[in-house]
């Protein structure tokens, strides 16, 4: 009983330390950019011990990957919106909502996504992580297309994985465009336009 | 008369030197990769003088950008295939041919495109050049969509530039996938699939 309480307290402290480090890391990344940021700055800002910090993370890449999972987790929830459309119109509504929320988050999380983009270009660990996030999205979209094909809503003759990949590419590249402030058009118009072409191209 | 001949000879020699340098540079890039390649290696391989070499190029980025223009010029010829379709079917045929040739060149020029990808990730001059090549393609596609819209073949309610951008993104990302040997599907199947979704989505 006594021992368990000690363990719980330790575990709780450990979770708090990790959380403090992640928050400090986020601030340092945003202030310094990925390349200049150092783990020492993060440890100092989080006010935790060096040894303790390294129990949680091996280096800044490691920390960034966790921050990436956090942000992309929110994006992924969008892709997970339940997809059992009964008609072409219903499918189009859901897909439009997904594309819009995905691209809108590029605006909301712009600054962190800018850091991710820098890191993807420099670190192969981060770049691999991004690729695995991308594959997760593509597999999810692929499943949705299969569902629509099996239910007579979408064109059966198309390779669903290739279609899913092409659709995700369009969304991803627009995401980076928006992150870099390179688009004048509103997120609403972009989402509407790409969804219109995609759903009419795929659905019956 | 005499003077003109001297000038012509000089000019000819200058063109040959430039050509020798470009060929040597290509070999060095392919052997060493972008990061490791040095302009000294290129000058040595081309057997030209140092001073002469620097008359033509300021550095290896500069040389790579010219090589990029050469390769992408071939790609761009594809986009320039005359586009005056009289029907949806004709448009689909032309667009399929364009997508296929674009992606097929990723196979033919794979090794040089691998060098370009490395360089885009490292050098901001090369990355800017890539962006300007991309914009040229998008403007060209955008023009084709306008033509189809004006001639009652494509959906007028869609913003042609946003559609063009989305379509190019799909093609570009597949290009890099093929360059990295990351696709099992044939270029033929990829081109067929993405064209089928795109043309049905856009054309009436």
Automatic annotation (TrEMBL), chains A, B:
Residues annotated to bind DNA: 38-57
PROSITE patterns from the UniProt entry: HTH_TETR_1, HTH_TETR_2
Keywords of the record: DNA-binding, Repressor
InterPro entries: DNA-bd_HTH_TetR-type_CS (IPR023772), Homeodomain-like_sf (IPR009057), HTH-type_Tx_Regulator (IPR050624), HTH_TetR (IPR001647), Tet_transcr_reg_TetR-rel_C_sf (IPR036271)
Domain of life: Bacteria
Molecular function terms from GO: DNA binding
Residues in HTH tetR-type domain copies: 15-75
UniProt cross-references to SUPFAM superfamilies, sorted A to Z: Homeodomain-like (SSF46689), Tetracyclin repressor-like, C-terminal domain (SSF48498)
Protein name from the UniProt record: TetR/AcrR family transcriptional regulator
Native source species: Neobacillus thermocopriae
